[in-house]
Amino acid sequence: MFDENLSFQQKEQIVRYLMKCYRKSSNRIHRYEICDSVRENFEIYRYDKTTCMLVDDALQELTQDERKIIRYDYMHPKEGQWYLEYFSRSTYHRLKVQAVDKFLRCLHA
Fold first, then answer.
1. Would you say 98 and 66 are in contact if contact means Cβ atoms under 8 Å apart?
2. Residue 63 and residue 29: Cα distance in Å, rounded?
């Protein structure tokens, strides 16, 4: 599997990059739909829709807790120790590693 030799920090970098792409694609989709310019930008629109669909599908494969961590740490980052409202530190860190690994595996499959 592609991620066997990657460190957790490298995996996190990949997830951060993917979420940056997701946010850009999502914003462009919204802009094209609002401005009624999908037809003029169809190739980019189609690429953006595919990007969002792949990420959304991978998120659906995660547990609710794993999804929460991906969303709040990478997709729509929250400041500070947001997780203390939901998890102990040790549970959060264990789930975070699990969430990143599972998310990347879902995208790679």
1. yes
2. 27
How far is residue 104's CA from residue 94's CA, in Å, rounded to a whole number? Answer: 16
Q: How many other CB atoms are there within 10 angstroms of residue 106's CB atom?
A: 16
CB-side neighbour CA atoms (13 Å) of 74: 26
Q: Tell me how long the chain is.
A: 109
77 φ/ψ sector (left φ>0, alpha ψ -120 to 50, else beta): beta
pLDDT tens, position by position, for the chain (109 residues)? 555 789 999 999 999 999 999 999 999 999 999 999 999 999 999 999 999 999 999 999 999 999 999 999 999 999 899 999 999 999 999 999 999 999 999 998 7
